[in-house]
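Job type: complex structure
Entries:
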Amino acid sequence: MEWATGETPPVLSDEALVAALRDDPPRGLALLYDRYGRMVFGVALRIVGEHGAAEEITQDVFLSCWQHLDRYETRRGSLATWLFSIAHHRAIDELRSRRGSETRRSAPFDDLQLAVPHEPFDEALLRGEIRRALAELPPAQREVIELIYWNGLTRREVSAHLELPLGTVHTRIRLGMDKLRALLARILGDE
Amino acid sequence: MTEEHDNERCTTIRANLAAYALGDGELSTMDQAHLAQCAACRSALAGYRRITAALRLSAEEATPPVALRARILAAARQPQPAPASEPPRAPRRPVRYAALALAAALLIALFGWNITLQQRVEQQAAQLTNSRSNWHTLTALLNDADVRWYAMAGNQARGRFWADPTGTAACLVAQQLPPLADHQVYQVWLTADRQVVNGGTFLPRDGDGWVMIRSDAPFTSYQAVIVTIEAAGGSAMPSGPTVLQGTLAQAEIPDATLRAAVLRAITSE
């Protein structure tokens, strides 16, 4: 946790940001970008791995968010989660388009918006738990999970990429996801 | 219809469910039929979805070029064409119609499943409401012109207790807390003369943590705040070692930069 002081963006709730976007779009968009620009750019860069494309995606995400603000439902999740789901979807589409793969895979975006950490944990605390859990996974299991989630590969594409039997890919996905469930059961409220 | 559980079939399907939750592919009719009959696999799918939702937090933030901000704001000032790509909405999963006889049988099972799912959604909505309520309270508190902070210290820990002295909502932010054993929590206490009031429990991450505290009486009624280590679930009275304490006598006035920095520290690493 960093306690450095310096110039920081105004502290606004999601409701205040949405209100600013509706009432004064240029100011609202600037505030939204100042708050979440690093997150969206980070997600895009992680997926497409190239600065130019990540910038383009980041621009699309913020403009799309602003243009479709009426689709954001505060009761279903934070602005951060909504922006992430748009960025993830857009970046995976970009990646798959480059590979000539079919775009627009199904993605559980409804669940992304519903997922919330337990009290008194919040996202900042959950982030560390997720990273620790991923680090505990056997590398072979972590690799197949990340290839699907962050690289947008299908299981068959993972099988070809890693030169593994499809059955092995299935086994690694299941074991890896089951281990993540076990490691994060307490914090995610999994039973 | 009774719940069926076939370990071999479940093992096979779990890989499909996990991949589906990660965004790869659709569920086959057979998978959907199995889900309708197998509570264990439904629970597994819900767990996989929670994992998938949380995976976003494994991405590192990155600093975009300075010019990007100006480009986005300039683009927003231009007349906007119809968007080329729609933002994601809840996906409409293709309905795969099985034989009518199977559908009729599954209907009964699905009814029970829907109830379970509805309960899950309501639980998550309640958690979300609680989380958002805390967040809004914290935001309002840090933006309150009357907010003050009080220094807290321990052998190794330090912290700040943020409150409007005449209000009833406060936030305790702590750093460098000593590690907890399994089944232990930190518990906050407000003290006044011979009275000790429970302020709630919290768990830190890497020694840092924060908790919202709501009091029935204004904080001017209390003299000190202490944090002790207690058994999971909390105690009725302080019984463990004190790791952090501070009096409510010396109020410090924060500037806007400090308020924003605290909020930023809480919401990022």
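Summary: Chain B touches chain A through 96 residues (CB under 8 Å). Helices of chain B lie at 7-22, 29-37, 39-55, 66-77, 100-143, 256-267.
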